[in-house]
Amino acid sequence: MKACVFTLGCKLNEVESASLMRGLEERGYEVTDELGYADLYLLNTCAVTAEAERKSRQAVARMRKYNPNAPVVVCGCASEQNAEAFLEKEGVVLVLGAQNKGKVLNVLQNRGIFRETEQVFCELPSPKQTKTRAFLRIQDGCNRFCSYCLIPYLRGRTRSRSAESVLREAENCGAREIVLTGIDVSSYRDGDIGLGELLLLLKDVPARIRLGSLEEGIVDEKFLLQMREAGNVAPHFHLSLQSGSSAVLKAMNRRYTREEYLACCKKIYEFFPDAAITTDIIVGFPTETEEDFKESLSIIGEAGFARVHCFPFSSRPGTAAAKKKDLSASVKKERMARITEAAKRAEIAYVSRFLGTERTVLFEEEGGYSENYIRIYANGAKEGTLARVKLVNLYRDGAFAEITEEIK
Ligand code: SF4
Question: What is the pLDDT at residue 1?
Fold first, then answer.
């Protein structure tokens, strides 16, 4: 029996799908993540934008083109948001939403909409790992209720995997880099163990640890000291910003001002002078004026971002921001073009700072990442190897480098 697990959306969805694939394999299925002929389809959906939701619904028809007789099981955020829209599609036998994803493997024989909202961390099988980079789920859900976001409604409140289980998977995965993944990794908590304590528990794992998306509130002296003491954590902070304007941040229900965010970046650089701070910025939030937007432009240079992911605002029905009047598509498009340019300049400036210096790179299939998240290309690089390299010149989305030493 062949099963196809098709995934849309975020990294956490990808990691969860990889776990479900492993679980299906253990149940005797031949599993693929590429859309094609299969006897069973599992669709892991996304609702981060209206477009993502539309693509999620369309995927059912794409599956049925390959095999109209195969049952389709749907899970993920779009199916939590509108389960009926999936169940009414021909071929769909079971809809589980986002919060019951972990039950997919146990309820495959059922039919209908499966709703149960236990707010506990849902363990999934360990995804099949490569020797290079492993993504390790440590947390799910969110308590923050940003005014534009559906995630707390779809995935539920924050909950964490036990430190013991995180440690066990980290020790057994065999990868040279482990990315701690979740919706809001900074809210990790298992009893007295917060994210900083978890990093200390992982300090003897023979892998470089990289943190997933963080919120600004986690960054204080205690956390940065714990990170430094752990010694194997990459100095890379993906610190969601969303807007450079304090007024827009307030309307977004973010919990910091522009000044507080910048102070947090400054603190990070005090502890880790070469740190890569990467971020997300939403462009064209309904209350964003031209002046507000210029603050988003100017903070990019001020914060010294290594990479900026910019997204046009997408109104999500059911959120507070959806009640506000949307900006015109042309304004959003024009601002997106300007901020994309600014982001590109910041990225080049960041990489340029390190030309002529040595970094440690974990090579993947094509190129690899330095500890401070510079994409590096080198002749003779072998997948899965860790090497010291000297950065020579800017190249593609990062730098070209010479390998100076392979690290065993
Ligand atoms: S922090 Fe805000 S944007 Fe991120 S998942 Fe939670 S509510 Fe959504």
Answer: 86
Choose which residue among 10, 49, 151 to substitute to test ligand 1 binding: the one with the highest number of ligand atoms within 8 A of its C-beta.
Answer: 151
Domain residue ranges of the chain, discontinuous segments joined by +: 2-113, 133-352, 358-407
Contact 363, 385 (CB under 8 A): yes
**197: nearest Cα among 180, 213, 182:** 180
Q: What is the CATH architecture assignment of 358-407?
A: Beta Barrel (2.40)
Q: How far is the CA of 149 from the centre of ligand 1 (A)?
A: 6
DSSP secondary structure string, 43-64?
EEE--SSHHHHHHHHHHHHHHH
With a 6 A CB cut-off, is 255 part of the ligand 1 pocket? no
Grouped pLDDT means (10 residues each) for the chain, 408 residues: 92 90 88 92 92 94 92 92 90 85 72 59 72 90 93 89 96 94 95 97 97 94 98 97 98 96 98 98 98 98 97 92 95 98 97 97 94 96 94 97 92
Q: What is the pLDDT of residue 112?
A: 56
Query: Residue 153 carries which side chain, given as an amino acid letter?
Result: Y
Q: Could you tell me the distance, in angstroms and rounded to a whole number, from the CA of residue 282 to the centre of ligand 1?
A: 12
Q: Do domains 133-352 and 358-407 have the same CATH topology?
A: no
Quick one: how far is CA 254 from the chain centroid?
A: 18
- How many residues appear in the chain? 408
Strand order in the sheet with 236-238: 236-238, 276-283, 307-312
Q: How far is CA 216 from CA 124, 184, 254, 256, in A?
A: 28, 11, 10, 8
Residue 279 dihedral angles phi and psi, to the nearest 5°:
-155, 175
Q: Are 18 and 134 in contact (CB under 8 A)?
A: no
CA separation for the pair 344, 333 (Å, rounded): 17
* Architecture field, domain 133-352: Alpha-Beta Horseshoe (3.80)
Of 266, 267, 286, 273, the C-alpha closest to 331 is 286
Beta bridge partners of 395: 398
Determine the Cα–Cα distance for residues 202 and 208; give it in Å rounded to an integer.
10
* DSSP letter for each residue of 64-128: HHH-TTS-EEEEEHHHHH-HHHHHTSTTEEEE-TTTTGGGGGGSTT--EE------S----PPPP
Q: Does domain 2-113 have CATH number 2.40.160.40?
A: no
Q: Is 151 in the pocket of ligand 1 (CB under 6 A)?
A: yes
Locate the ligand 1 atom nearest the alpha carbon of residue 155 and give its number.
Answer: 5
